Each structure stands twice: as C-alpha cells, then as structure tokens.
Amino acid sequence: MDNEVKKARGVIEWSNDLFAATAMAPEFSSEKLTTANLKKVRNDIDKVLKKLSAVAAQLDPIKQPNSVFDPSNPEAVGRVVAMALLSQHKRSLLSIPRFYGSGIYAIYYTGSFSEYSPLAGADHPIYVGKADPLSPKARYPQEQGEKLCSRLKEHLKSIKKATNLNTEDFQCRFLIVASGWQEAAERYLINLYKPIWNKETKICYGIGKHGDSAGTRGNKRSPWDTMHSGREWAEHTIDDQVSKDKIIDMLTHHFRSNPPIVDKQKAVDTFLEEMCQHHN
Of 84, 224, 232, 280, which is least packed with CB atoms within 10 Å of its CB? Predict the structure, then answer.
C-alpha cells in the first residue's frame, strides 16, 4: 500500500477516535475550578484546536493564504504612513517653520558625540515621535493645531540646553497625517528602528520630560538628562535613574545587537518584505 494512503487512513482513524472521545467528554461546571486550573484547561484546549486547524488545512487541497491584506487595519496603515515619512526630505531641526498639522516625525543625529558614533552617516533616527491633534475629530491641519511643529521646537529647546550637544548636528523628517493614524505609524517606526532616545528602547529616554518640579514629584533624573546635563529643573534632581556608566554600557550593547540602518532603502526593503504574501 502506498505510504501516503496509509497516512491518510491513519488521519481518518485518528479523527474518528477524537470525535468519539469528544462525544464522551464529561460535563463539568467551570465554577468548581480554580482560576488557575480553568486557565490551564482553556490553554490546553486552545493548543489542541490549533493542531486540529493545522491538520484540517493540510487535508484541504486548496491552500490558504498566509495573510490577507486589509487596508482598514491600523497596523497596515501605520506601515504605509511610516514609509511616507521616509520619503520626506531631511531638514535642519533649526529651520522648522510654524505650520498647522499633527502627525509623526523622526530626528537624526549627525554630530561627533562619541557614544552615538554608530549613528554617524546612517539614515537611522535617534528619536521618533508623534504629535496628536488638538481634537481627535480634527479633519484639517488648521483644526489639528500647530502640534507637530510645536513638538519639534520643544525638542530643539531641550537640545539647546544640553551642554554636550550642538543643535546644528540635528536633522528631522516630519509628516502631517490625518487624525488618528499617527499612533500606529509611530509604533511601527519604533519597532523598526529601536531609537535610543525613545522610552520603549529603555536606554537614553527622557528628552520628552517637561520641567515640572522634581522635588514635588520625587523623580530621579532621566537617563537623557544624565547623559546631557543642562536643563535647569533636572539639575536640581539629586539622583539618577540609571548611572552614566550603565547607560554607556547599554548603548554599546544596543548598537552591537541592533546595527543602525545605514540606508533608508534597507528600511523600505524591510517594509516590502513584511507586506509580502508568501505562497508555497
């Protein structure tokens, strides 16, 4: 008998046995199970269902696609918006005009600060962010307010106060986005680049902190302020959240594990690969 025929008959017998076992499954009340046991039972059932689904897919002569592109999916839109940001020309952070609109942005470092040397010559942001509109229902840039340019100017103000950074060494890209789509785009960019100034990367975060009283809040100095002293309110904070030596060690490890993207084409290639539906 052909080996594949034997396998098929084995699957049929197994499914019949499984159906019979399911029919004989004892009735029970979930109220009598502890939360932990109920969770374990549900997890075990989910695992079995996934295996059954995989077997059913193998038996179907018509293959299922590995994904379905849904233009209404916020994550899909986020990727497209992120790529639109990369299509924008870089400009000096010093030359940001006043304009209406909210959206997303990326800040790039081109200076000689030794701990950031891996970023030199790379098309890799040191920080990415979003600026939400004045109202989530805002339809036009004027209704969104001057949110995006204001956010960039806030960062510029912080950089100006740092004693070991030069404002001339910073560039940016920014994109005015229809209200509601900025968050997904920001999330995608953070996952792609893992920028060292973003709090999600957990290394040199804190540039976005404002100068509310450190004494009132009892906060420790942020890693960004530890690396870049100069903001008056941070100087009045006694303790660091993380020591400077530890931050430098984390930066070294991070750049070794996540080499900066030198050319934006690499980011575009990554985007295209993620959007690709692979068919066997």
Answer: 280
The CA distance from 221 to 241, in Å, is 6
pLDDT in the model for residue 24: 61
Judge whether 18 lies within some domain. no
The reply to whether 29 falls in a domain is: no
Could you read off the pLDDT of 6-25 as tens digits, one per residue?
776 776 776 666 666 666 66
Q: 75: phi > 0 → left, psi -120 to 50 → alpha, else beta; which?
A: alpha
Q: Is the pTM of this model over 0.90?
A: no
Domain containing 181 equals 74-275
Please tell me the distance from the alpha carbon of residue 47 to that of residue 41, in angstroms, as a whole number: 10
Please give the Cα distance from 66 to 8 (Å, whole number).
24
Task: Please tell me the number of Cα atoms within 13 Å of 136 on its side-chain side.
Answer: 3
With 0-12 CB in 10 A as exposed, 13-18 as middle and 19+ as buried, what is 178? middle
What total of structural domains would you count in the chain?
Answer: 1
**Under 8 Å between Cβ of 155 and 130:** no
Cβ proximity of 94 and 235 under 8 Å? no
Residues 6+ apart with CB under 8 A from 132: 102, 147, 182, 183
Is 11 within the bounds of a domain?
no
